[in-house]
Design brief:
mainly alpha, 15 helices, about 0% strand, elongated, T-complex 11, testis-specific-like 1, Tcp11
């Protein structure tokens, strides 16, 4: 790319100037500007065709009368009338460029940004229509699949039926809403076992993202469980030290990918350091062993502390969705 601009610079600096590459660039600029015009830009389209009339520009080149700065100024003004307000400052900066090569490079860079802006605007404008069409399309596809193979959504049916049963058990008075059932069903996906092959068919495309969210929830539960066990054993005096909880949480989060044994050792070490700085004494050896053992036991899915924290986290997520 740099070689192209260097070649253009050499052509424009030659005597007489060689505008062969510049002509190609002007044609590309004209095409790009035309692609940014809307159907209502009738006058602007006509004006663009007249100013960037390539046959007329060829005649000006042959007569040595081509004024690149004049054409660049027109292009920049046209871009300014078409671009989003957020680009106004960058458009103004183009007016201060004097070298033709720098002008061309700046114009092409800005046209690229404007094309992206136009695409984003088009998508944003069409989003409601696209969403409506997507729903209708997916319904039609699901119907085709079900007509062809009635058992193709068995996993989804079982997944939703489980959520319905749990929701009916928790709501004794009044009807069960579809949204509450769906929320509960999605909560199940956040703790779905990787060994369970009966993943709902309707959310298979999102499984990677949902598994990632589930992993974040499990990490959060383990973080909170370690903190709760540590608080129960070391007491409030150390817990109230400025910055202690934040520093401890960072250590836990960084080490949870490894064995909980290392986490336990590090927690005990930081608690002892904090106690020594405040009370000039460390935890009794018996309490240290209890704390280590409780943290090491958190690897078990049926650990009472982990179950308690997990239910609390999931309950808060469920309330948030509701």
């Amino acid at each position: 790319r740099w070689a192209f601009w260097d070649c253009l610079q050499q052509q424009l600096n030659s005597e007489p100037p060689d505008y062969s590459h510049a002509m190609v660039l002007l044609q590309e600029i004209k095409t790009l500007l035309e692609s940014l015009l809307l159907p209502g830009h009738v006058r602007l389209r006509t004006e663009l065709s007249e100013v960037l009339d390539m046959e007329l520009i060829k005649q000006e080149v042959s007569q040595g009368a081509l004024d690149l700065n004049r054409l660049a100024a027109y292009v920049i003004n046209t871009m300014g009338s078409l671009c989003a307000p957020v680009r106004d400052q960058e458009i103004r900066a183009l007016h201060h460029l004097q070298e033709p090569v720098e002008l061309f490079r700046g114009i092409f860079h800005m046209l690229g940004l404007m094309k992206i802006d136009m695409v984003n605007f088009t998508v944003q404008t069409l989003r409601p229509h696209l969403m409506q069409q997507a729903v209708q399309y997916e319904r039609a596809k699901f119907k085709q699949i079900l007509d062809k193979d009635p058992a193709s959504l068995d996993n989804t049916v079982a997944w939703l039926c489980t959520a319905v049963s749990e929701e009916m058990s928790s709501v004794r008075d009044g009807p069960v809403s579809a949204m509450s059932v769906l929320n509960r069903a999605y909560m199940h996906l956040l703790r779905w076992s990787s060994l369970d092959q009966k993943y709902p068919e309707t959310v298979l495309m999102d499984r990677v993202r949902l598994d990632s969210l589930g992993e974040q929830v499990r990490s959060l539960v383990l973080d909170a469980s370690v903190l709760l066990v540590t608080h129960a054993q070391c007491g409030g005096a150390v817990w109230s030290l400025p910055g202690f909880v934040g520093k401890l949480k960072q250590s836990i989060t960084a080490d949870l990918r490894g064995a909980l044994l290392r986490v336990a050792e590090k927690v005990v070490q930081q608690v002892n350091e904090a106690r020594c700085s405040q009370e000039n004494t460390s935890l009794p050896q018996e309490i240290q062993e209890i704390l280590k053992g409780q943290i090491e036991e958190l690897w078990r899915d049926d650990n009472p502390v982990r179950i308690l924290i997990g239910e609390t986290v999931r309950k808060n997520i469920y309330i948030y969705f509701s």
